[in-house]
Amino acid sequence: MSNKFLIPLIIFIAITILLGIGLTMNPRAIPSTLIAKPAPNFTLPLLHDQATTFNPDQLKGQRWVLNVWASWCVSCRYEHPLLNTMANNGATIIGLNYKDKADAAKQWLNERGNPYTHSPFDESGRVGIEWGVIAVPETFVIDENGVIVYKYTGPLTADVIQQELMPVLTYTEASQ
């Protein structure tokens, strides 16, 4: 076999191997550069009371969830009942309303229940960009020191909550 055919064949095999490896990877497991770093700080008005603001420093000393959602997000509909259940079980969930219309977001929560302790209203999406949001929904867990310890891109499922999120959310030094 001449080099004329050997080099393209080697390149084809290498590309095929790389594509094969890529197909075995979880597309939702997008690494975040924010893991183990302080959560970006922000101050935003609340969806239901624009005269009141929310800042993550208000939750220092607590482990909490930041869920990025929008009324136009179809995937958010699938995870919302699970968030309601988490909230009913005592989880502190902050719902960052992302690039939405306030009236549509309020109506959405009225129809489906409101699992959020606070709903900061990020109409421009600026805060979402600072948090590295690439798709809605996204969910973060922030520890007692204000450090991001977990991120999930896409709609939460019961399995993800049980196997990944809850162990991180309920982690304590004493539990290890």
From TrEMBL:
GO terms assigned for molecular function: disulfide oxidoreductase activity
Looking at the record, the residues that make up the Thioredoxin domain are 33-170
Membrane-crossing segments per the record: 6-25
Query: Record's Pfam families?
Result: Redoxin
What membrane topology does the annotation report for this chain? Single-pass membrane protein
Q: Name one GO biological process term.
A: cytochrome complex assembly
Name the UniProt key words of this record, in alphabetical order: Cytochrome c-type biogenesis, Disulfide bond, Membrane, Redox-active center, Transmembrane, Transmembrane helix
**Keyword Endoplasmic reticulum attributed:** no
Which cell locations does it reside in?
Answer: Cell inner membrane
Please tell me whether the keyword Manganese is annotated for this protein. no
InterPro entries from the xrefs?
A: Periplasmic_diS_OxRdtase_DsbE, Redoxin, Thioredoxin-like_sf, Thioredoxin_CS, Thioredoxin_domain, Thioredoxin_ResA/DsbE_sf
Instruction: Give me the Gene Ontology terms describing cellular component.
Output: outer membrane-bounded periplasmic space; plasma membrane
**Record-linked NCBIfam families:** dsbE
Would you identify the family this protein belongs to, as annotated? Belongs to the thioredoxin family. DsbE subfamily.
What is this protein's name?
A: Cytochrome C-type biogenesis protein
Q: Which organism is it from?
A: Arenicella chitinivorans
